[in-house]
Specification:
Helix content is 32%, strand content 27%. A six-stranded mixed β-sheet has the order 6-7-8-3-9-10, sandwiched between helices. The radius of gyration is 18 Å and the shape is globular. It is an alpha/beta fold and 238 residues long. It has a domain of 165 residues: P-loop containing nucleotide triphosphate hydrolases (Rossmann fold), CATH 3.40.50.300. The structure holds adenosine-5'-triphosphate. Adenosine-5'-triphosphate (ATP) binds next to helix 1. This is ABC-2 type transport system ATP-binding protein. Keywords: ATP-binding, Nucleotide-binding, Transport.
C-alpha cells in the first residue's frame, strides 16, 4: 500500500468558462477517514468524480493510490458510492450482488452476505421496497465486498435520518478499522461527519480553503471544528 492515498497538483475542472474546481493541491495520507466538506456547489462531487475517473481534469495532476487515474488503472482498487441513490430498484438484493460480482475481480461474496445478514436484510428483498437507510447499507455492502483500498462516498449520510446516519458512520469506522482502507466522504456540513473524519478537506466555490489532520488543525487554530470551518468559508457576496 502507498503512504499517500490521493495527491493532486493544481488540479482543476471547468465547465465552459466556469471553474467547478481550480488550483487544488492536496495530499491525503493513506489509512485515514477524510471529510470533504463545503457548501452546495463547492466542488466536492467534481473532486470525487475526478478521483474515480468519471470526470477528466481540465488541468493539473491527480494520483490515486500512487498511480495516474486511467482506463487500465488503479480503479479496481477503488469503490465509489455516488451522491444519487443509484441502486436498481427493480432488482432483488441477490441480483445486485450477482451483477456486482460480475464486474469486480476483487469481489468477496462472503463479506456481502455476512454484512446483510447482520443487518437483517434478506437477499430476496426487492431494493425498491427497502428504506433509505437500508439502501444506504446495501450500497455500502456492495462497495465493501469489492475489498477496496480506497472507498469514496459522495454525501452518504445527507439523506439519512439520525439513526441510519449513526449506523452508517459506525459501519464506515468499523470497515476502516478492519481493513485499513482510506475512506473519503463528503458532506455540506462538517457536523454531518462528526466523530467520523480524522482528516479534513474544506472546499468553497471551487477553491481549496483548508486541508489537514483535524486534531492538528483544531490544536493549531485553537478553535472547534465547526468554528474553524465557518471562518474559512468565503464571506457571503454582499
Ligand atoms: N455537468 C455540469 N455542467 C455545468 N456545471 C456543472 C456541472 N456539474 C457541476 N457543475 C458546477 O460546478 C460547480 C461545483 O459542482 P459540484 O457538484 O462539484 O459541487 P458540490 O460541492 O458537490 O455541491 P452539492 O453539495 O450541491 O452536491 C457548481 O457550480 C456546479 O453548478
Amino acid at each position: 500500500m502507498t503512504e499517500t492515498a490521493i495527491a493532486t497538483t493544481n488540479l482543476g475542472r471547468q465547465y465552459g468558462a466556469k471553474w467547478a474546481l481550480r488550483d487544488c493541491t492536496l495530499r491525503i495520507p493513506a489509512g485515514r477517514v477524510v471529510g470533504v466538506v463545503g457548501p452546495a456547489g463547492a466542488g466536492k462531487s467534481t473532486l470525487m468524480n475526478m478521483m474515480v475517473g468519471l470526470l477528466h481534469p481540465s488541468e493539473g495532476e491527480l494520483e490515486v493510490l500512487g498511480e495516474r487515474v486511467g482506463p487500465t488503472s488503479v480503479l479496481e482498487r477503488v469503490a465509489h458510492i455516488a451522491e444519487e441513490d443509484a441502486l436498481c430498484r427493480n432488482f432483488k438484493v441477490t441480483d445486485l450482488l450477482t451483477a456486482a460480482r460480475l464486474f469486480n475481480a476483487r469481489w468477496t461474496q462472503r463479506i456481502a452476505e455476512d454484512r446483510l445478514r447482520e443487518r437483517g436484510i434478506s437477499l430476496d428483498s426487492k431494493v425498491g421496497e427497502l428504506s433509505c437507510g437500508q439502501r444506504a447499507q446495501i450500497a455500502l455492502t456492495v462497495a465493501l465486498a469489492t475489498t477496496p483500498e480506497l472507498l469514496i462516498l459522495d454525501a452518504p449520510v445527507t439523506r439519512l435520518d439520525p439513526l441510519a446516519r449513526k449506523e452508517t458512520v459506525s459501519a464506515l469506522l468499523a470497515a476502516q478499522a478492519e481493513t485499513g482502507c482510506t475512506v473519503v466522504v463528503s458532506a455540506r456540513e462538517v457536523t454531518e461527519l462528526e466523530q467520523l473524519c480524522d482528516h479534513l478537506v474544506l472546499l468553497d466555490r471551487g477553491e481549496l480553503r483548508l486541508a489537514g489532520d483535524t486534531a492538528e488543525l483544531v490544536r493549531r487554530h485553537q478553535l472547534g471544528l465547526d468554528e474553524l470551518v465557518a471562518r474559512h468559508l468565503a464571506q457571503p457576496v454582499g
